[in-house]
Amino acid sequence: MNVTFKTANRVRQAITRRDALKQGFLGMAGLALAARSGALAHAASGQPAKAKSVIQIWMWGGPSHLDTFDPKPDAGSDYCGPLNKPIATNVEGIRIGELLPMLAQQADKYSIIRSMTHGVNAHETASYITQTGREPDRLVYPSAGAVVSLFNGYDHGYKGLVPPYVVLTEAQGRFSEAGLLGQRYKPFVTGGDPNQARFTVEGIIAQGISDERQRSRRDLLHTLDTLGKAMPSNVRFQEMDKTEENAYGMMFGDARKLFDLSQETDAVREQYGKNTFGQCCLVARRLVEQGVPFVTINYKGWDTHKQHFEIMKRKLPEMDRAMATLLQDLSDRGLLESTIVWWGGEFGRTPKVQWEAPWNGGRGHYGTCFTSVVAGGGFKGGHVVGASDATGSEVAERPVHPRDLIGSMYTLLGIDPEGKLPNAAGLDVCVLPSEQSVKKGAGLLTEIM
């Protein structure tokens, strides 16, 4: 459907109404909200839900389990390097890495899974397995965020203007997070940096463009939209008008305030850490406080093939402060009971340090045995699930496949892991493969649920 505009010299130029909206700088927020029209009707799972939201702290690149939540001080310097003095936590018998003193005082709020495994050392494949719970095959299945957006998003009571699946601040690009669910379930990626004076969220706040100028562009768009005015009852035009209204609601209404950290005190912002990750954790808290079902923080910098220990000494204190503050803040606000915090990456790092050239003290990719952490939303705190061997090289007891972990989260969110996965293509597929078909794992994490 085209809208035709006539210029003074009678030159005719055709432009679609959707293009006009794009050129009106509604941006990604408007396009994300367009999906609210014409939604598929999805059946609710009927499962009792303990959790309402998830904050996923994605350790992009793969964090070392030995230097974080599964220290091995007796393994020797070839495994520990200089980080060989793990510290006690506020839970008797649980020790974690020496560079995580603040998280050590929050151990009663989270559980450590020390026996994660999938055996894959390639970033793309490991990311897919860890975020979907599936082995690669002919279909691309959706990530956990997209599945939660499907079952707990707009079709099931969520009414927020901010899309139900938000990524802070950069997409990974490892695979299509929406998979076979389609574009409607792709995450809203904010872009920008919340640690800057102005958090320029893509599609909500435009860099270098004032609010006054943004509004004048909208007025111009309406002036040009002659066909829309001539056909006000057209269903398609009404849908696009609603999309525009929602988008501008994000740009100038209450939704915009969610990303405005100037509304937080300087003391709170300092407590989280005045860095990108710290401020992302604060934004995530603000989003789940307003009911956003799934927030992913893509935390880069953990692919430490070289200068591993130098990087750990810089990044682990940053992570420690922000994550510990997030857990405490959620707890203080009564949100931890309904919010799952999920920490982990696509795999761990090689337990044995690669001292040889060209690595000179690095750690490689390691999917045989690694660690994840979960807190809140029905997960018990102060527990350790599974165990690795004396060097952190193999799973010693209670193997946990990503399917087991993701299925456990789905269960707490009221989503049946083995229920049908509705999709526009009409494919007969389930939310997750059956437990019996995943031989590497030992089932849902019932011991901490």
What does this structure look like?
This protein has 449 residues and is α/β, with parallel strands linked by helices. It has one domain: Alkaline Phosphatase, subunit A. Helix content is 31%, strand content 14%. It has 14 helices and 16 strands. It has helices spanning 17-23, 27-34, 77-80, 101-104, 123-132, 144-152, 211-224, 226-230, 235-252, 254-258, 266-272, 276-289, 308-332, 402-412; strands at residues 2-6, 12-16, 53-59, 87-88, 95-96, 110-116, 165-168, 188-189, 294-299, 339-344, 348-349, 365-366, 370-375, 383-385, 387-388, 395-397. The strands form 5 sheets. Strands 8-7-9-3-10-13-6-14 form an 8-stranded mixed sheet. β1 (2-6) and β2 (12-16) form a beta hairpin. α12 (276-289) runs parallel beside α13. The longest helix has 25 residues, at 308-332. The chain is globular, with a radius of gyration of 23 Å. The model is unreliable at 1-45 (pLDDT under 50).
Would you kindly provide a brief summary of this structure?
The chain has 14 helices and 16 strands. The protein is α/β, with parallel strands linked by helices and 449 residues long. The protein has a single domain (49-211, 265-448), classed as Alkaline Phosphatase, subunit A.
